[in-house]
Amino acid sequence: MSLKLDFPPVREVRITLDVNDRSFDLSVEPRAILADVLREQCGLTATHIGCEHGVCGACTVMVDGAPQRSCLQSAARFEGKHVETLEAFAEDALMAQLRQAFTAEHALQCGYCTPGMLITARDIALRLPEADEARIREELAGNLCRCTGYNGIVAAIQRVLREHARERAALKTSHAA
Amino acid sequence: MKAVAYALEKSSAAPAAVQALQEGGWGCKPVAGGQSLGAMLNLRLAQPETLIDLDGIAELRSVKSDERFVTFGAMTTHAQVEDGLVPDPSNGLMPKVARGIAYRAVRNRGTLGGSLCHADPAADWVSTMPLLDARLLVMGASGSHEIAAPQFMTAAFETMLAEGELLTHIRVPRRSSATRWSYRKFCRKTGEFAHALAAALHDPLDGTERLVFGALDGAPKLYARAGLMNEILDAAGRAKLIAEAAPGLDDTRVAMLAEMLRLVAQDMHTKAAA
Question: What is the tens place of the pLDDT at every residue in A81-96?
Fold first, then answer.
């Protein structure tokens, strides 16, 4: 005996998304969040989905150059915006430096939060080059690590900020000379 | 969880959005930054038939400034306020409040108007705008009108906005550089919604003294009268105000609110304006 399941009709809309400098023509339901579309239709699985209500930060991506949640809004609302997922930063010098620091400081265990942590860490390094530990912790409040690896994550960001401070100081000295 | 199926209509002008809201009726709502509504959609606490996307409406992002007021488009983001990308009429209060809202990734998208209309009692602008004596500009089918910020929020998640009306601008009066303020909230974790909130503003040039309690069960409670800053100096005066402002609170919340108000009093009497 088979049961006939009566699903409601699915209404999709056609959208074009600019993700990592590639144009994706997609058919999506208006309710589909950006994170799901990135993962399932664009094949970009670095973006992780955790809480789906904006608290955990695992889904954080760059939108027009600033970090945003990709779980809170319909993918259709990102048309005309420049979306960058972690994949876009494979060749990025600052992200490479952060990845090295994350390795050196044991800043990840299971790795689930890491894509969001790296996006946020990069934003901190660019926006708040002078951030001290307290400010880094304040800025990281929007990214949860359930392995509770915060000490390592904070240390990794501090390491990169210290390296940058040294580079700035060296640059100043060489200019002075 | 995933949201229920809904239709998304993009609007490019405020009057068109108002018309769409009027025609859409009960199941039709505007979406601004979506940082609260998005979570409620995913949790299925909100199940709209249609969302009117305000993202493409340029006039909702305009910010005008004159000698008396700064008028913010309702779609001004918290991060724009935090970063000083828009003028600050409040002698530092608004950027300080903005930096404490949720998380940077949320502030980059969340908006002043969206937060005010969502009217979560524990949110920040619903308490800050009454403190600043702001005026909210609302567009409806028969034109625009102003609502004073202290009257705008009526209860938890309830505002004066009628069906088919849209908050378009927030007009904040300029405060003198002599203005002192304090904004204190108790959050279990940085960026979380507050469990208790108290804030005060004192402009000695025109004698303005205002005090607000937020994160209550309903709308924030505002006081505006001469002598307020002296009333909060001693514990008895503070306890009297809290008992009057929030009669139904349990002991724990009263204690949190009392501590926030104590810090406000301390700030107002010892700290130079930030």
Answer: 999 999 999 999 999 9
Going by their DSSP bridges, the two strands A13-19 and A82-84 should be labelled as parallel
Instruction: Return left, alpha or beta for B159; rule: phi > 0 is left, psi -120 to 50 is alpha, else beta.
Output: beta
In a domain, B1, yes or no: no
CATH number, domain containing residue A37: 3.10.20.30
B182-224, pLDDT tens digit by residue? 999 999 999 999 999 999 999 999 999 999 999 999 999 999 9
Do A94 and A126 touch, CB atoms closer than 8 A?
Answer: yes
With CB atoms and an 8 Å threshold, state whether B8 touches A138: no
Quote the minimal CA–CA distance from A84 to chain B in Å. Answer: 14
Dist CA A95 CA B256 (whole Å): 42
Q: Which of residues 176-215 of B touch A (CB under 8 A)?
A: 189-191
Contact A14, A27 (CB under 8 A): yes
CB contact under 8 A, A52 and B34: no
- A&B contacts, CB < 8 Å: 89
What's CA B210's distance to the chain center, in Å? 16
Q: How many domains does chain B have?
A: 3
In a domain, A4, yes or no: no
Specify the pTM. Answer: 0.95
- Both B142 and B49 in one domain: the answer is no
ipTM of the complex in this document? 0.94
